[in-house]
Amino acid sequence: MKKTLLTVSLMLAALAPAVQAASVSFPDVVKAKETAKSQGKPALILWYGSDWMQDSAGLVKEWNALCKQDIPVVFGQFDDKTGQTSDARRKTMGELKMEGYNLPMAVLLAPDGTFVACYEGKTVRSADAMAKALKKMLEKVPDFMKKVEEARKLTGKDAATAAGKALAMLPEKDARRHKELNDILRKQDKDNAAGYTAVYAMDHMAMYKEINNVLQGGPDGKLKDGNRKFAAAEKYVLDTMKASGLDKGGKKNQEAQQQWLAGLSYVYREHFKATKGEGERSRLLKALDDCIKVNPKSQYGIGAAKYRHYWDPKSFTLIENMYYNPGDQTHNFEKDWHVVVTKSISGAGTYVFELVPRENGRLITRNYRLAVNGRVVGTANSLNPKDDTKKAEFTVPAVKPGDKVEVWLTAECRDGWFGCSGEIKMEKK
């Protein structure tokens, strides 16, 4: 019986119409580059995955519509099909000379194969949007390539200046992923003398490496904790931003602005952790505010806002589900928790509030208070506010329907590895 069913299934599968992958009929990367060079035209490489990409048919339809428009480019494709090896992908990335990729995307190359720009998101899925973006960028290609050729021939600061001016013609995201020109900056101008290396060729890891070199007293330095050179590190970041024009703000190079402001906040954070000085905390919060102001919707802006909340002594952590986890913790300083216990209150009386750790992680909790509708109405019974304890007893007054009852406490998790987590109970005695 099983054999019969299997045979029928195979027959039905054979009779079913084959699923055709949506595709375009453009040459591969190598052939497209060769044609572009021979014709003296830029190449546009369309990169997608025909065998697996969602709405591949719609994407291909737009690209076929794009190629019918009067745009002076040679079209090519890289089809990242299911099963494509990482080696083949890396080889193609090397051919395109760009860092990082996404799918789907379109990559614009100069006639000699030099990476110019990359189109992603909504732009790459619309023939009209792509055409508009391409025409705007194609106007810049001749001047861009003049600077690229200069950068290739020159050395030192002069090469870096030419490379930087070329990168400045591109959108920031493309400039920061341009492998060839950024390699020129890294090799010819490690000290950022031309002012472009810090803008385009230093990612956040390279930036933090340099900051830590200064903090520790040099590449081979071993200064630790409060002995580190905080003033020198602050000066290094501020001087770098000034030399690169990142201290002027504006809409240009916002990602680089935010990256270096994040680096500045790192210096202030480390200084505050070492000294507990409120002046350092204020400078930390100011640097984070400046980072948010540049672009509050970017990843840096969103992250800075969360980080600011963490370090601001006037903010508090709201806990509404009677469970605390490592994300609710602060390290190296104490901060208030506002634990909503309204649902645990069943009338006036004496209640026991308790933290039941799962991962204790040296959790310090003290200064227990009872609040109703955001106003403190009492403290823990027979308990010194300075005592570190996981249990507190409260006399809860009668509350009206709709009142919000909370237990406020000051907490700090002093274990940065395991963190602190556990349940919270509020039970009538």
Kindly describe this structure:
- This protein is of the alpha+beta class.
- The chain is built from 16 helices and 13 strands.
- The strands form three sheets. Strands 5-7-12-9-10 form a five-stranded mixed β-sheet, with no helix packed on it. Strands 2-1-3-4 form a four-stranded mixed β-sheet, sandwiched between helices.
- A hairpin with a 5-residue loop joins β3 (105-109) and β4 (115-119).
- α12 (204-215) crosses α13 and α14 runs antiparallel to α15 (278-294).
- The longest helix is centred in the middle third of the chain and has 22 residues, at 254-275.
- The chain is elongated.
Helical element count? 16
End-to-end Cα distance, whole Å, is: 68 Å
The helix-and-strand class reads: alpha+beta
Looking at the structure, what is the overall shape? elongated
Mean pLDDT, nearest integer? 90
Q: How many runs of DSSP E, i.e. beta strands? A: 13
Strand order of the largest sheet: 5-7-12-9-10
The biggest sheet, with number of strands, parallel, antiparallel or mixed sense and barrel status, is: 5 strands, mixed
Report low-confidence residues grouped into runs of 5 or more.
1-20
What level of helicity do the residues show? Answer: 40-55%
Instruction: Kindly estimate the percentage of residues that lie in beta strands according to DSSP.
Output: 15-25%
The succession of helices and strands, N to C, reads: HHEHEHEEHHHHHHHHHHHHEEEEEEEEE
CA-based gyration radius: 30 Å
